[in-house]
Sequence to fold (764 residues):
Amino acid sequence: MAVTPPERRIWWNEPIERVELVWIVIAFLWGLFMFVFMIAWHFIGQQNLSKEAYRIAPSAYEAKVDDFAKKNKVREEAGIPVAKPKPGSDVYILGRLWQWWPILELEKGQSYRIHLSSIDWQHGFSLQPTNINIQVHPGYEHVISLTPTQSGEFGIVCNEFCGIGHHTMTGKIYVTEPKKAEAEQRLADGR
Amino acid sequence: MTAETVIGAVPAKAEFRTCQYTGLKVDVAAQRLIIANAVAAVVFLAIGGLMGLLVALTRWPAVHLLPADWFYLILTGHGANVLLFWIIFFEMAILYFASAVLLNSRLAAPKLGWLGFILMIVGALATNVAVLQGDSSVMFTSYPPMMAKPHFYLGIILFAVGALIGCGLFFATLVIAKEEGTYEGSIPLVTFGALTAAIIAVFTIASGAIILIPTWLWSLGLISDIDPLMYKVVWWAMGHSSQQINVSAHVSLWYLTAALLVGAKPLSEKVSRTAFFMYILFLQLASAHHLLAEPGMDASWKIVNTSYMMYLAVMGSMVHGLTVPGAIEAAQRRNGFDRGMFEWLRKAPWGNPAFSGMFLSLVFFGFIGGISGVVLGTEQLNVLMHNTIYVPGHFHGTVVAGTTLAFMGATYIVLPLIFQREIVWPKLAKIQPYLFGIGAAGISLFMMGAGTLGVARRHWDMTFSDASIGFAHSAGAFLMMGLNGIFAIIAAIGGIIFVLVVVATAFFGKKITSGHKLTFPLFSGGGAVASHYGSEKAPKLPGTIILVTIFFVCFVLYYFINWKYLSELWLFR
Fold:
């Protein structure tokens, strides 16, 4: 019984059962749909990760962030500056062992060019509870146009393991309500 | 060119025995290697599994077992021991089985097989020593610029070289079997699946060498710098592709188990083999899954790669998802369980742990691991879950509830057939796949739930009690992590029973002699079904059609729910 001769030597000419054929077509079309939907979201969706990135020496990035924090500082919290940048401007966030620096104050409905980089190890920018998660690399400056759609207090958690203090690495973004009429106008403009 | 010139050896005088249950001719040298690799696999499963329990108990906020430094150390060891060592040792056993045993052939160069085995053991020990010394807690992925001790990388390199030798023996055995005419026509489907796994393994190990050798030199101070982004591209060509070895291997085991236990034949050889072939063509693109949230990657590159070229490899898995239960349904209906939609499934051998392990693996892999994998790997949706604990949730669905459970189920076939021992404590063995499966499915689902609520992976303290800027997760997130801990205990109980049953059987199980009746019987003629090909004839499969319809509806709903979540996020471009 062990090595009985094969039943049909030419198996590749056997017809495919109907049920299999139907399922293959469904699976293929569903795959095609999912493929096209990712492309479509670049046109119909408002959440697409930017590919704008630059190589930068960690020390150069640190200098940029220091400069940004100095120019936009409105107050301090627990020794960390709170920066309130102008809408539409460049905003710098630094990941390092073990904090996200500085604290930001943004306006709801306004777009900002957020720069992300690290000066030591890889970190994970995780905005909570909104749940936006972006990887941060040393040596790469990633630029994202970000528009808050909610107001309140938001935490930045690190979700890439970065050593023994990883679980203490946090940051904060405040989002304030803009003047009502102005904001509605902007949202209507789709900016 | 003869087989001898290919492997550079004269035909060895192989020693064979004939299996009384399947009639297969078993090369004793291959049998010894299968036993050694399977035993090593189980040892590393025991170590890595216990580490996993410690991790889950630490992440359970109410228990919070380990201190931070031990948590990161144990988590690094958990990844290496179960994801790499347990699974690849077991896959070596599968390769030797699917080549020498299923083809009735002698194994090529068994001495080289032992060399590979020893390299793998030495490598696994070196990496474990590095981890336990405490200064290589870099996580399994060891992303630079964070650096581990040189022997952490060297161990993995040696392990991979050993595994590559195993793959070489597999290919050589195929050549020998063809040359010596030990089978006619094409290789069996199970061997074809194993061949798929071995081909992907070669790609995987090559990628591993390309990245780990420079990283090792970097840790020795011979190379000044490893680019962190480049590292990820190449490392994941190993890290993710190695999971595709698992998929090919455990899908092969699904077909094998179905053949041996209910006499199932594939519905169509052509379809099942083409589905495996899709894996070879497209699965290696998956490195992109780990680069969707990185700076500077172009959208078109991401879309083509992350979708495995228009989801053609996903199509392969969906095809197996129909053809495996379909083959079982067709066989069971032929076996006389033909009433209604689901008599074939109700009266399947659920009391046989090989079958229950296999079928639960099929269901969990598809519903939990498969669907979450596609969602996680969708270009834009990834931003919702990247590096949250959703990610381990997904891959515990594939690698634990899928691969590990399938391997456990197959072990209940290997013990009587290859170890030739009667399984001790059959009642415990009977419930084992259920305990482990439910536990594994639970941890997968609850980690996915917690990740959807934003909980980070690889993180010691979700209360942020030592952070200068505090953050409070929702109560739901804490509940999910608590439930994760409870189901991890259930899975651990299932895992401990498995290890105890295997070890006790291997050493103290009653020797199987001729005429012995198995506690967990095989299907009469199962061996013949497994060892040669031939498609099932024009079956009607209403039950399977309902099962895949439920699957498809879940898939579509869950996919769109996540797009809805995404559309509610802040705007970014």
The longest strand of chain A covers residues 140-147.
